[in-house]
Structure formats: C-alpha cells, structure tokens
Amino acid sequence: MTTGNKLNFAVIGCGMLARSQHIPNIARSAKAALHTCCDLSDAALDECRQKWGVKHTSKDFKAVIHDPEVEAICLATTQNVRLPVISEAARAGKPVYVEKPLADNMTELLQIQKIIKESGILFCVGHNRRSSPAAIEAHRIFRAHMTHPQSCPWRWEREGSARLKLKEDGVAAMNVRINDDWYSWKKWVFNNKQSSQGPLLFEFTHFYDLCNWFMAAEPAEVVAVETGMMTSAVIIRYKTGEIATIMDSANGTFGYPKELYEVMGNGGMVVLDHMLEIRTAGIADAVPRQVFPMLGDRHPNVGTEGGLYGWLAKKNTACREAVAKGDPLLQFTAEPDKGHARAIDAFVDEIRGTGPRVCGIDDAVLATKIAFAALKSSAEKRIVEV
Questions:
Q1: Which residues contact 274 (CB under 8 A, 6 or more apart)?
Q2: What is the pTM of this model?
Q3: What is the mean pLDDT of residues 307-328?
C-alpha cells in the first residue's frame, strides 16, 4: 500500500450505528474506501447500495474477510457475535476496527485479547471520543500539567512553608456527567439476548476508557449503584490514588448537552463540555477557553459565539423547527465532533505506519474489565477489585 491510495474497508454488521456513522464516514473519507457491506438484512444492504453506492454486498462474512481486495474490516455487529468474525480476520491477517464493547462476558473478552496478541493483527476499538479534537486537546493540556505543573502565581498558600506534606498532594481526579433521554433508545437495548448487561457495559465503556486515558493510571477497584437501567453511578479508584466518578441518567433531555468532563490535579482544572468547549483554570500557560467546530450545522447564523452557549442557541432554534414541522429528528443540528470519522482515519494511519496506536486491545480490555467489575459491584452491593 502507498499513502496515496485509499484503504479498502469491508463493513460487517450494517445496523443503525454502521449506517449512521461508519458507512458514511468511510464513504466520505480521504483515506478509506467503502468496498463491501456485509449483513443478513436485505433492507440494510439495499440502503448501503442505494444511499452510499457500495458496489459489493454479501451475507457471508468469511467470504468478505478473505476477499483479496478487502484490506481492513470495520466490525459493527452486536458484541455477542464479534468473536467469530475477529477470529476469522486474525486468520486472514486483516486489521480490524471494532465497535465497543468488545464482549459481554470475561471469557470471550480474554479470548479476543489472546487472538489479537497471537495473530499480531492491528486492532482498534471504537472508543471514538479519544479521537474527538476537543478531547485530544483537553487531554494534552491536562497531561502536560500533570507532568510539568504550571501553577498560577495567585494560588493561595495559607500555611506557606509550614504546609503539611500529604502523599495525595496533586493527585488527579475526574468527574463525568452524562445526560441522556431513554425515549431515543433502540429496541435491542431492552432485549436480554442482545444486551444482557445493560448500560454499565454498552454505554459506560466509553467513559471508563476516557477516565483511564486522562488519569493515565491503572484501576484498582470499583463501586457501582444502579436504579434499573435509567440512572447509574460508578466510582473508580486507581492504584496510585486517582479517583474518577461517572453519573449517567437517561431521564434527561437532548435539549441540553449530553457530556461534561471535569478533570483536576496539581492545583489546576480542565473542563470539557460536550466536545464543543474547553475551559481551564489554575494552569498558568493554558488558554482559559477554546471552542471547537460543530457538525451538520443548519443554523450557521445562530449562536455564532460557538461553544456551550452557541450550541444552546442553535439547539433551541432546531427544537422550535422540529415542533413547527412535526419532525423530532430536526432537533439534531450542530452536533459535537465525537471523533467517529477521525477514529477510522487515524486507524488507517496506524495501519500504514504513519500514525500512533488509536485505541488498542489492552486499553479496550481494561475498560471492559471495569465494566464487569461495576456490574458485579451493583449486583452484590460492594466494592469490587478490577
């Protein structure tokens, strides 16, 4: 392969997520080409042909994987049918980008890890928020501050030289707040065969991974509390003292931003709001506020200040439009860049040896182990080691 050519991808599993993200992202990419779509549904394959112009379709994932023109796999099936596809791709020596979570039980998770390690294939898990431009910048600022603290000269040291020496001085912590609306959830979420573990696995793995990434530490133990599927809270304690808390409620609203991340340590703070705005405080060399572009903005003349308040103005306009036209989907406009398309492109760079690892097997396994510990903690009402 040369860097001037696009990499041929086959998408295996063409459900809603694949048709709304992976297929269009690959079709529009300057680095990847949509070569084949594989699914058991005729309707899904028809849509792939008609809407995205894919020339090759199939219901046989093995034949697709062994097609010599297919150079990489994007696997977007449900997690309970990923192991056989990954195994076949490993036998064929094909790189795999797979949706999260990797598996819904520890046995299959460790099997997949073993297959990847032994085969040596390049492997990327879709913890796409690591590829969001705003998340990348927030992570850069925070990790630089943790490595080389740049405290502000106005920081108040009440005791001065008499200040106590504490082992946890400067240690990082993170708070994650997720606002969701369960009315929007797909039916499979409530199907025990397809989603046997619930949101602590299929949704929270994103946030476990981000916490691990920002904390740059190894998790030690987890405690989790759930009230059914709608509201959950998880606390992760890391071996070096860091703590991350995650609270998710599905009784919220899309009229307000979904994700808020607050990271603190060494007398400084970085706040990442909905992948649209970064705010910093207590870090001498950091820009106080940065805003990031929005995707699919139908109202470019509204909320021109960008960031949180710009997004709210655009959202309110879109919600009024949705009511006026009787179409609730019109509420979605000016969405944050959560890194879906950039993750695929970054994986192409990784495959070609021109970019770093995006999110490899070990990082994904660690996030999934936290999920299993959280499920055990919630069920048994106790702290569980990772």
A1: 257, 258, 259, 260, 308, 311, 336
A2: 0.93
A3: 97
